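Ticket opened by: R.M.
Priority: normal
Category: complex prediction / small molecule

The reporter submitted a protein together with heme C and asked that the result be attached to this ticket for the collaborator who will pick it up next week. Submitted input follows.
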Amino acid sequence: MAHRPAARVRMAGLLAGLALAGCGGDDPPDCEVAAGTGPVMPATGLCRQLSSYRLFADLAAQTADPALVPFDVAVPLFADYTVKQRWLYLPPGGTAAWRDVDAFELPVGAMLVKSFAYLDDRRAPTGGRRLLETRVLVRQVGGWKAGAYVYRDDGRDADLAPTGDVLDATWIHDDGAARSNRYVVPDPNQCLNCHGEHMARMAPLGLKARHLNRPALDGTGDQLQRWIDAGLLTGAPDPTTWPRDPAIDDAGASLDDRARAWLDVSCAHCHNGTGAARTVGLDLSVGQLNREALGVCKAPVAGGAATGGRRYDIVPGQPDQSILVFRLESTDAELRMPALGRNLVDADGVALVRAWIAAMPGSCP
Ligand code: HEC
Ligand code: HEC
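Result attached by the on-call engineer:
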């Protein structure tokens, strides 16, 4: 369970010029919460210790307070083979308001919680695990506050990491081989690079209709319908009109739909018209129908090493000639995509995108 002392995370050089203003994560933590039991949110700032929010009856075991609603997304973001748990907390009487495309609107006092862990052995999902960090997004009057809490060695509490952290981790992989990673806990500017999807305003990313439209975590019924039935979600249109991300291995969905959902979750928070990668004109949002904006026969903005000697982001039928695949398969901190959030290559994601490009008709000039 040992972890190394905090180390400033090196921000990929390519993002340095995009450091976004208005983060709010630099405020000194202050945490004034009322005494009592059950979850509690500070009106401003973040608490230094995760335990202060009273979210979990037992932090080491991740036993959440009954007021927390566990949820999952259809296509999770790859995070170096960690396993994740997510919860939604709504203040008493508060509800989430439906939106068709962007994240549901949540009231002041709401919180989103996401814990990251490595399974000791990925072949034994119910066996031992090492808790790494819990990320929170807290809705306050001035907007969303983001923080990451790194677990102490005994897992009984976690401390706010205002400048991020690096944790050396080892595990047994799916194939039985020993693997290791210098796992990166992001700093608040890095949270904002992704969660500032539109005009650098911090906002949730997974809490969208198309990501949440999937079976409930306990397998009984549909996740969104359960929220509606419990009075947690208002304003939803007729269920037959709900958008849906097919899972990466959904045999009933087309290759195109699966690849587009994966690119949307993995890339579109930066690669959209108002995101951190807006200047390159590569828009990987699920609603983007223009082939060149999607990268097909699009010449890249950055030349040289960033292209791996290839001419276009996507060359139909030719994954090996596509810069997009080259950057997905890169582990170089200056080249790899997504630009944040991973050291390792997402083998399943790469296989999906390769198959998608291989099946694409046409050619480039
Ligand atoms: C590489 C981009 C990236 C970075 C960096 C990042 N996130 Fe996220 N985060 C996502 C995406 C995409 C999702 C939704 C998909 C998922 O949960 O797997 C998400 C989900 C979450 C959730 C669950 C609620 C939601 O929005 O769906 C929380 C809480 C969260 N992130 C907090 C943080 C905090 C705090 C930081 C910084 C310490 C951070 N994230 C850094 C991309 C990122
Ligand atoms: C944290 C923000 C971020 C995320 C997430 C991200 N990118 Fe990028 N991407 C950038 C930035 C910034 C650039 C421009 C600088 C450069 O080329 O390195 C870029 C450039 C690119 C380019 C070159 C495009 C061109 O036409 O010049 C490709 C290809 C690319 N990204 C693919 C992806 C893919 C595929 C994903 C998801 C798997 C992804 N990116 C996720 C920030 C991001």
